[in-house]
Each structure stands twice: as structure tokens, then as C-alpha cells.
Amino acid sequence: MKKKTFMDIDVSGKKVLVRVDYNVPLDENGNIIDDTRIIATLPTLTYLRKNNAKIILVTHLGRPNGSVVPKFSLKPIAKRLGQILNIEIKLSKDVVGEDAHKLVEEMNEGDVVLLENVRFHKEEEQNDEKFCKELASLADIFVNDAFGTAHRAHASTAGVSRYLPSVAGFLMNKELISISEVIDNPTKPFLVIFGGAKVSDKIGVINRLLDKATTILIGGAMAYTFIAAKGGKIGMSRFEEDKLEIAKLILEEAERRNVKILLPVDTVVSKEFIPNAVAKTVDSFNIPDGYQGMDIGKRTIKAFIKEIKKAKTIVWNGPMGVYEFDKFKKGTNKIAKAVAKSHAISVVGGGDSVAAVNATGYADRITHISTGGGATLEFLEGKLLPGVAVLDDK
Ligand code: AMP
Question: Is 211 in the pocket of ligand 1 (CB under 6 A)?
Fold first, then answer.
């Protein structure tokens, strides 16, 4: 599947509607805590400006649920982007309507207008036809550079494409190429590392990767569902009872296909789910009553790192423990360091795993850090993402 990018078409003098993912974290005063997602779009913006396009940016921020919520206004983003590009970024009062049209009509080549939060309209998530049409009427071309929201069929990620030539931006293209390369033709041994909260989010990917992976490491809360499926005692650990059967099937299928699945052998547990909880390490298959698993233990870290060192291709998604609590982030950090220092082709996705990799100082050694969470998982699973499906083929 080869999609057109904006390098395949003439953008000069054109009004280009670019869907970006500027859903950045803000502190309680509305200051941007981390502008990685803004920085990630600079190649696209720079290319379009150099090629004399007029850039109209559209994004969501937070979950305003279809109404105007002032704390989710894009004002801080317009300001930060203006500082980065060293130009004035005009922010429209509304995504569509008179003010947006006026700002767009006044643009010169190379200018950038930011449309106000697209999720201030309930029509965005409803992928409403009239709203798609209105949004499209602002521009000549649609560029989707928001891989992180490409698994959603919303007006600004998919619907708008019905009315405009639609192509991928740099960031979107890089995601599609990097992830496809790893998944279509992985150099073996191919190691997949899964963690995080829920088995349910990852069943589809695990099933698909059973076809391709050499070894799968499972940490995080999702490991306890697998441990319980094997008859282990998991105490009060978080697990999904309704996924026990599917976990059993996955384990059986892996065995049949000769794919090694490694579960934690030891676990750091506590009685309370709080940052400074008193912790101890126990056998993962024999967690005492009243205790819950919070992180993988030392012996597990060692066993997992051994596999990471052997791998030639690595895909990692999801933390090994409760990464939000300093006391229980050790497993995730050690795995992050090992993945980053390995010589394998590596793809890391999901907020916590990416943050852990960034904190190692070796992030530049990861082949591809994905900007998606759910989108990365769905793409790895082989699903056609709505925001990608609508882009014109080469
Ligand atoms: P996900 O969004 O699926 O990548 O899951 C990330 C979440 O999994 C984080 O908020 C972690 O705190 C949580 N998590 C990881 N390990 C555990 C665990 N052992 N118990 C409870 N939550 C966990």
C-alpha cells in the first residue's frame, strides 16, 4: 500500500489543510509541558512553507466532547508554534465559519493559520457530512500528518478527504513506512514486547504477530491474565477475567507455532496502589493474598534483557509496571535501556514506553519511535486505519 505524499503533488500557492496531532499535555495553568508533537510536524510545515503553500492547521486538544471548553483552546499552541517558526500564527475563533474563511482569504504564501479545537464541534467525532464539507471548503488539498488519530474516522481525520485531493504528510509517511517494513519483513529473531494495562487492547496484535514473532515477552498488568490462565496465583493483581480463555488460546497457539512466550517469573508487589507503597518481590505464580503486582522483578528483567540482546528486530508497546509511580518504574526503565542500546531494528510505541526510552538518553538509537498509541497497535495488527485508507494511492 503506497500512499501519495505532498511531494507527489504541486502545493505551490495552494491552501493546504493539514491535520496534525497537537494534543499536547498541559499543566493546570494551561502551559505546554511537552511540545514533542509540535516539533514532530516541523518537517511537514517547513516543506510546505518552502514550497509556497498556505498552511491551515487543524487538530484536537483534550476531550471537550463537542462543546466550547475554554481550557482546551489552542491559544497556547498557537503561541508556541509561533515561537518555534518565528512567525505569527493566527488562531481562528472557530474551526469553520466566517472568521476561519476570512483568515484563510487573507493568507500569503508561507503563512500558517491554526483553526480552533476541532473537537469543540460534536460533528467532528460524528464525521458529519455537512461539517466535513464546510471544513473542506477552506482548502484545495488535504494533508493528513496525524498518525496518532488515524484509527479514528472523524471529520478532520477522514471525512474531509471526500471533498479534496488527500495525501500523507512526512510524519504520517514515516510511520507507515517504518512500521510496515518491520512487520512485513522482520529480520529474525523477531522479539515483541508487550506491557501495559489490558490484554484486550493487544489481543489482535498478538494474534497477528504469532505468525511472525520468534519470541514474545509479556509484562505489565496484562501478564497477570496470562499467569492466571496458566493456573498461577495472582493475589489482588489487576487482570481481566473475561480474557482468561483467550489468553489460554494464545498460549496454546504460540506453543503450536513454536513461538516462545515469556511471562514474568518474579514480581514486585505491594498491598496498596500508591506511589510509596511498601514493596517486596515474590514469585509471579504465587502472589500472596492481599498483594498486587506492580512491576516485574529482577530475575524477569534479566531474562527479558537476555532476549533483547539476541533479537535482530524488536517491537515494544506498553510499560512493564506502574510507570507513573517512581518506585515501580524500574522494570520499564531497564527494558527501555536494553532496547535502546540493542543493535536491533526497533519500533517503540505507546506513551509510557516512549517516555521511558526518551529518559534513557539513547532514544536516537531506536529505529522508529511511533507517535501513535492505539493507532500503532491497530496498524501493527494489519488493520487499515480510516485516516490512511482515505489517502490517495500512488
Ligand atoms: P496501556 O495504556 O495499555 O499501555 O497501559 C498503561 C498503563 O498500564 C499504565 O497506566 C500503567 O500504570 C498500567 N500498568 C502497568 N503495569 C501495571 C500493573 N502491574 N498493575 C496495574 N497497572 C499497571
Answer: no
